[in-house]
Amino acid sequence: MTTMNTLSNFFIILLVLSLATQLWLIARQLGHVQKNRARVPDEFKDQISLEAHQKAADYTLTRTRFSRYEAVVGSILLLIWTLGGGLEILDQAWRSLGWSPIWTGIGFMVAVMLISSLLDLPFSAYRTFVIEQRFGFNKTTSATFFADLFKGTLLTLAIGVPLLWLVLWIMEVSGPLWWLYVWAVWFGFSLFLMWAYPAFIAPLFNKFKPLENGELKDGIEKLMDQCGFHSNGIFVMDGSRRSAHGNAYFSGIGNKKQIVFFDTLMEQLDGDEIEAVLAHELGHFRMHHIRKRLIGMGIISLISLAILGWLIKPDWFYHGLGVSTASTYMGLTLFMLLTPLVGFFLTPLMSLLSRKHEFEADAYASKQRNANLLITALVKMYEENASTLTPDPVYSSFYDSHPPAPVRIDHLKKQSQPTG
Q: What are the CA-CA distances from residue 415 to residues 111, 352, 410 (Å)?
């Protein structure tokens, strides 16, 4: 039986503060979007119809209301896992099997993952088959939904169990500096996944066809040469199999880098606009944003694991979170559950950095292609994806990785104006 301590009180305060902040931000977003629903912003009135603007507002309102329930349920579940005794009950059940500490830990952590996934399943299904369906975006069938779930679970187990065994083994045998060795393994594995994803993982879920020869491909290849970007290919992905939303990205590192366009995006934009969108993505490459994010992620994870190296020793860490018996796997599990809670308060800083990168990539794209092309492409994407043009400024500053539409378009218009 565990008892409450100072950590328990701190954890409750942090959880309540996090939930209260989320609900306050959600209330602001709902009020602001509803207030501006009746009128298209002046800077978009010649490009976005009132009907499209109101659809985006309603889509945003629906998703935001649903996020309120997700936030409340997520906080309750975290409380049940910890102070409610969920982890303690599960831990004692696995300990009763008499397995070795490492395999007990693997079984316990896999069970936590599977239970968490099952608890999230109704939310995921509702988002897909109710919200996305209501606004005409869902193209996912129930067969595809459950096939993705099955393949994702198998892939996670196939990759995660060996990695988890290695991490727990290092924690058991490496002494006080185990966190440094675990960080090296984790960071190296993250780089490997970035390399392997486009070639081996993504094709398990989507079909990728090389972009057909023609004027668009010639223009894209010219743009890539101009930007000094060498890829393993340009592909069109069957995004329309699951959603009507359009997007583009490049993935992979080293000789596995590849450019991917959703087939939905290809239908939404013309060739010049697609090149402008790609110029923005290449801007992230040329401005070394991927590298900077990797370095930042590496530093944060190193500091986090160093903190865990200190927290994992004292009994008060476990007792304060509802667990009676200390173990390496329980320490790791508790830390993984607490990290999003603590990380929530770093969200505004991470969002600010991301928006800075977006502005820089826009500026780079404006030097490669006419900024007006990127503006028209973005406006079309805002309309097709039902992205609200009027987010609450505080909510947007806290959460949004991309600048709000009016701010971003205004910056691009300044890029398109001659200087001097």
A: 52, 21, 9
Tell me the whole-structure pTM to 2 decimals: 0.91
Closest alpha carbon to 182 in 298, 337, 303, 305? 305
Distance CA 138, CA 242 (A): 6
Q: Write a three-state SS string for 281-342.
A: HHHHHHCCHHHHHHHHHHHHHHHHHHHHHHHCCCHHHHHCCCCCCCCHHHHHHHHHHHHHHH
Looking at residue 94, its pLDDT comes to: 97
Rg (CA), the chain: 24
Residues 171-210: tens digit of each pLDDT: 999 989 999 999 999 999 998 988 888 888 889 999 999 9
Q: Active-site residue numbers? A: 281, 362
Give me the phi and psi of 360, to 5 degrees please: -65, -40
C-alpha span between 163 and 161 (Å, rounded): 5
What are the start-end ranges of the H helices in 36-98? 50-81, 86-95
Q: What is the 8-class DSSP label of residue 212?
A: P
Rounded to whole angstroms, how far apart are CA atoms 277 and 143? 33
Beta-carbon contacts of 314 under 8 Å, excluding residues fewer than 6 positions away, are none
pLDDT on residue 419: 47
For residue range 397-406, list pLDDT tens digits in order: 999 999 999 9
